[in-house]
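Marked as duplicate of an earlier ticket. Keeping the data here for the record.
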Amino acid sequence: VGRESHSGALQLGNELFLLCCLSFGQSNVSRNQNSGIIKVRFPEGEGTIEIRPFSQTAHYGAIQGKSYTGAMFDEAGGYSAAGWALMWQIMTNLRAPEGVKIRVMILMNPYGNSHGRAKKEFIDKAPWWTPYTDDAGLRYVNCQVNLDDNPHTDVKAYEARLKKACQGNPEKYK
C-alpha cells in the first residue's frame, strides 16, 4: 500500500490495522509500525501488508527486489510527477505465478497534481465500469463514485469547497 506522504502512510496504516483487527480478530493481527508491516494470520497461512510512503525515488530502495501480488496506491490523483512515475516503477514489483491474478487499486479524487495524467492514462480509456486491458496486459475498470455514495459526508458543504477550489474553472470540477 503506497501513499506519497509519510504522515498519510501512517494514517492509512493505523486505519488498516484497526480494520484488520475488527475483521480477523485482534489475536490474528500483528503490526510493526516502524517497518510499516501488518501481518494477518489465516487458517491456511499468513498475509502481509506493507504500508510505504514514496515521495522520492530513494524510497524505492526499500522494496527493490521484492515481489508482490497486489498493490494499492492511495490519493494517486494528488501525486507529484515524481510520485506518479514511482507508482509505475513500483508496479514492476508485481510478480505472481501463472494463474494468480495480480490486483492493483489506484484510488484518487479529482483536481490534484496528477489529475491530467490519470485522465489520460485511465479515465479516457473506457467508460465507467467497463473493463479494459493496457499494452502491458494489465486489466482495469474505472469506477466512479459520487458524493452521494458516502453517507458520512455533508455533500452540500463538500461540494461548495470543491467548486471554490476550482477557482471558477468549470473544467476542473467535472
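See parent ticket for discussion. The helical segments are 6-24, 81-90, 115-121, 155-165, 170-173.
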